[in-house]
Design brief:
This protein is mainly alpha-helical. Helices cover about 75% and strands about 5% of the residues.
Length: about 375
């Protein structure tokens, strides 16, 4: 959008007014708007444009998530794979791509800043990479799963849930241990986290293969494989594209309104990159595919910690702030442990347990604003 270079180049005008006897009258002629008024005008137009693009992103997300959920459910039915396994692998891999793209890009830019000697820029960008991954993990359990449980209590298939929920807690504990052993970041963090991811996927595929005879899995019935692949690809691309629209223009809107970058990273970026998980999970709830919603969140969190953090650590060391080590990671561990306890103890995720998860997330956000919300904190 074109903007005037200086106050002398103003193009917007208003009717010139004067005061006669304390009453304002139109005196004829036109007067230029002040610089402040022009800035407000252009800011309001920019804000409207950003909101329109955000709305477009949400619309794309809604439609794409519908296609994606249908395709994922058809995969489970066609190959007789448990829904939670599908959610923890295929669905989670695609819906975690926004987190990966944002964090990996930040890590690459941080590496370039470090090589150029700009340590401040490096710290800011790697902080964005870590904050996006950890913040999305907290958002997925606290906000998304808590909200889904409030809308519709989830019956938990115990065998798959224990395996996948336990894997999430182990990955979170490993990441916590890495934060203590390597607070300034290390290549070994990437090696260990990606090794954990490989072990998780190997186990998931092994259990899926053992769930049904191989000959039945190689002779699918129902939707044609090509159509299924096209549905899956279209849904995945739409989910990623829509989420990027929301994230990019939400960030632009926040900056336009003067919101600190720290708040952007902790709220808009983390929430925006988690929107695919939110929309896919809500769509799965509406379609009565609650196992898919649970598996999607668990798998996405494993990928956030193992894939996103692991890959970024291979690009550049990821130094962790005291806030991340002593606040964000403990909250991640607490939510992962509570999810496992709730799912095992009652064999379902009830509304009151969803309320607990959601309350923790709200409290987490409140602490971020109250304690860490200043740029000098």
């Amino acid at each position: 959008m074109w903007r005037p270079r200086c106050a002398k180049a103003l193009v917007l005008i208003r009717v010139k007014q004067c005061s006669i006897g304390g009453v304002r009258h139109v005196c004829g002629g036109l007067a230029p708007l002040s610089a402040i008024e022009n800035l407000l005008y252009f800011a309001s137009m920019s804000a409207l444009l950003y909101l329109l693009f955000m709305a477009l992103g949400v619309a794309i997300l809604v439609k794409a998530s519908d296609l994606f959920t249908d395709a994922a459910v058809e995969v489970a039915r066609t190959f007789r794979i448990p829904e939670i396994v599908v959610g923890a692998t295929l669905v989670s891999l695609a819906t975690t791509l926004p987190e990966f793209a944002v964090s990996f890009t930040a890590a690459v830019k941080g590496k370039a800043a470090l090589l150029s000697g700009d340590e401040a820029a490096w710290l800011g960008r790697v902080g964005m990479a870590v904050g996006n991954a950890v913040g999305s993990t907290i958002c997925n359990v606290g906000l998304i799963l808590g909200l889904c449980a409030l809308l519709s209590p989830m019956v938990v298939e115990q065998r798959s849930f224990r395996r996948n929920g336990g894997s999430l807690l182990v990955i979170a504990l490993v990441f916590g241990a890495m934060s203590i052993l390597f607070p300034h970041g290390s290549l070994w963090v990437g090696v260990v986290m990606l090794t954990g991811l490989f072990a998780y996927f190997t186990s998931a595929i092994h259990h899926a293969l053992n769930a049904v005879p191989l000959e039945k899995m190689l002779a699918p019935k129902g939707t044609a494989p090509l159509k299924l692949a096209l549905l899956f690809a279209a849904g995945a691309i739409g989910v990623i594209a829509g989420s990027q629209l929301v994230v990019v223009f939400a960030e632009k809107l926040a900056r336009l309104m003067g919101v600190p970058e720290l708040i952007i990273a902790l709220t808009l970026v983390a929430l925006g990159t988690s929107m695919p998980e939110l929309v896919v999970s809500l769509a799965a709830i509406v379609k009565k595919q609650r196992g898919l919603s649970m598996g999607n969140i668990i798998g996405a969190n494993i990928l956030n910690l193992a894939w996103v953090i692991g890959a970024c650590s291979l690009v550049t060391p990821l130094p962790l702030t005291n806030q991340t080590r002593f606040f964000d990671i403990p909250v991640t561990l607490a939510l992962s442990a509570l999810l496992l306890i709730f799912g095992i103890s009652g064999k379902r995720l009830a509304r009151r347990e969803g309320a607990v998860l959601l309350a923790i997330y709200i409290g987490y956000l409140a602490m971020q604003f109250a304690v860490f919300g200043r740029t000098d904190s």
